[in-house]
Structures are given as C-alpha cells and as structure tokens.
Amino acid sequence: MKIAVLGAGAWGTALAIQAAARHAVTLWARDPAQIAAMQRARLNARYLPESPLPEALKLSAHLDEAVAGADLLIVGTPMAGLRATLQACPGAVPLLWLCKGFEAGTARLGHEIARELGRRAVGVLSGPSFAQEVARGQATALVAASEEAAVAEAAVAAFHGERLRVYTSTDPVGVEVGGAVKNVMAIAGGVADGLRERAQAQGDWSQAPGLNARAALLTRGLAEMTRLGLALGGRAETFLGLAGLGDLVLTATGELSRNRKVGLLLAQGLDLPAALAQLGHVAEGVYSARTVLERGQGLGVELPITAAVVEMLEGRLTPAQALNLLMAREPRAEL
Length: 335
Ligand SMILES: NC(=O)c1ccc[n+]([C@@H]2O[C@H](COP(=O)([O-])OP(=O)(O)OC[C@H]3O[C@@H](n4cnc5c(N)ncnc54)[C@H](O)[C@@H]3O)[C@@H](O)[C@H]2O)c1
Ligand SMILES: O=P(O)(O)OC[C@H](O)CO
Prior knowledge:
By secondary structure, this protein is α/β, with parallel strands linked by helices. The chain has two domains: 2-170, Rossmann fold, CATH 3.40.50; 174-328, N-(1-d-carboxylethyl)-l-norvaline Dehydrogenase, domain 2 (Orthogonal Bundle), CATH 1.10.1040. The protein is 53% helix and 13% strand. The longest helix is centred in the middle third of the chain and has 31 residues, at 172-202. The structure holds nicotinamide-adenine-dinucleotide and SN-glycerol-3-phosphate. Nicotinamide-adenine-dinucleotide binds next to helix 1 and helix 4.
C-alpha cells in the first residue's frame, strides 16, 4: 500500500514508523525546517526523540507530493489542523484522522467537519495508544471506525500486525466522543493524582483525594462520556470498548498522558498558560472541555466533572475547590 501520514507530531510519526515496515509511507509536516531537521537526523527530535526513523520512511514538506498516488491518507494533525488538511487532500482516497477532540470555534467532531465539507470515505482511528509505546513496537490495540466498511478495513490493512491490533467499528460517532471526553477526564484524573501527591509530601491526607476518589472519578467520567455519546448518536457498547473505557483508563492514569500532565501541573499550583508552556505538546482536553460542556447543555445532558474541569481551566476554581464542588452534589441514583 502507498500511505501518506499528514502531520508529524508524536502520533503521526509513531504510526508512520510502524507502517513503513510493510508499506510505502510518506510523512508530511507543514514546517519545512522540521522536515529538513528530521531528514538530517533521521529522528523526530522534538516530538518523538527516542525512536529513529526507518530508512524506508519518506519525508516531505509538500502536501501535494506526499498524497500523490496514495491509497490511504492518515491525518495526524491536532483537531485544529483537521479541517484545513481535509480541504487540501484529494477527495477520492480513503482517509482516517487520528485526532481526538472537538474543533474549537465550531464545536464540531471530525465526522461533522467531514460531512460539512462533503467528504466521503472517511473514518477515525482511535483507542488507548501512547505514541512512544507504538513507536517502540510495544503491544497496542486500536479501533478504526467508519460508516464505510472499506475505510476501516483499509486501516486494518495498513497497521494491523504482530504488535498492533486494529479492530473495526461502525460507530464513528461513539469512537469520536470517547476520544474527546476521555481527554477532559484525564485532566481531572491528573488533578486528583496531583492533589494526592501534594498531600503525601505534606503528610496531611484529610482533604486530599486518594485512590478511592480516582476510581470514582473514572467511573463517573465514563457515565458522562456515555450520556453525551448516546445523546449525540453513539452506541452504548462503544463506550465500554477501546475508544471509551480503554482510552479513559489509559489516559487518566498513564504517566505518558499530556492531558493528565496538565492536571498534575494545575494541582501543583501552576496556572494554565504555565502548565501548557511546560508541556510543549498538544493536550486536546484543554481545547475541548468547554465544547463538551456546551454540547451537553444543548442536549440537556448533565456533565458535572466536565463542568468542574472547565471552571478550573478558566481559573474560577482551584483544583481543591473543584473537588469539593463534586463531593458536595446532592445524593442521587447511580445512572
Ligand atoms: N501522542 C499520542 O500518544 C496520541 C495518541 C493518540 C491520539 N493522539 C491525538 O493525535 C493528535 C496529534 O497529537 P500528537 O501527539 O501527534 O501532537 P504533538 O503535540 O506531538 O504534535 C502536534 C503536531 O501537529 C502539528 N500541527 C499543529 N497544528 C497543525 C495544523 N494546523 N496543521 C498541520 N500540522 C499542525 C505541529 O506542528 C506538530 O508537528 C491529537 O489530536 C492527539 O489527541 C495522540
Ligand atoms: O497524551 P494524551 O493525553 O494526549 O493521550 C494520548 C492518547 O490519546 C492516549 O490514547
């Protein structure tokens, strides 16, 4: 297969490295200086510094050149770049995106942007997957979701192998909601872990969330994801799958998560700009949290953890106040 991976951050680069073992792959980045540096070092030093690029992997700073003759297009930009990249890509070639979130400004998910642009033969590749582990060849399972079976099957043909399993799904809406909401919950998980670490350092546990609180947060976070996902047209079983529960557990507890790291830094007392400057990578939950909340409000879906994360990100509540707010809610049935 001839594959173009568009966007050379950590995730696009990791998947390009894996696919290059079996297919003709070109990795595109919009920044010619980044491509030149990667070409010289045969390494994506800024975004994936541990994993050398295989000789067979082609690099290009020209999108037209990268997509010429491709059988499959993989868009690896953040959500902020998805629309422009879709517009620049040839319409007849199957395409999947990797980004997880809502588009800032329009509040759209990827499939809604594609529909608006009249783009067909599209899907999303998601699931619990830290780029560093995939680049190293550590075992990982993904899910490729599309309304068109041929698109999901193209992702299987491109990436499924001994160390990378790719399942298929016909529920792109559910898969996209899972990916977007788990990032918001990972910020909350990072805040809880960060408050716990602070309490441990100070020897005062009374006000700090512990492991019980983290388990509660994940479980109620899954409930929020499911409520919103069902209201948007996703299927319940998807939220118990790789793109839902699987990615929620990974991102909200895993050391490598950038969204969780934002929460940890907020709990250490940094404000959001300082936390993002320290991170140096995209943390989609920061840009999607308010949209998740507003789309929920528009559909009459209650999302209390998301609301608390928004209050923290926008500086109206400290992490400890956000936790207290969640604990002070009225008792209710577990739905
Ligand atoms: N890193 C992971 O482990 C991982 C895993 C699964 C999914 N994702 C998702 O994949 C997407 C990309 O994440 P990442 O980790 O590769 O990001 P990153 O922070 O490592 O790199 C982002 C890259 O995108 C480029 N970029 C930014 N805006 C762009 C635009 N408008 N057009 C073209 N390129 C643009 C940047 O120059 C940079 O090369 C995100 O939505 C993320 O949630 C990441
Ligand atoms: O590092 P994060 O928080 O962007 O998460 C990366 C992936 O989405 C995990 O599946």
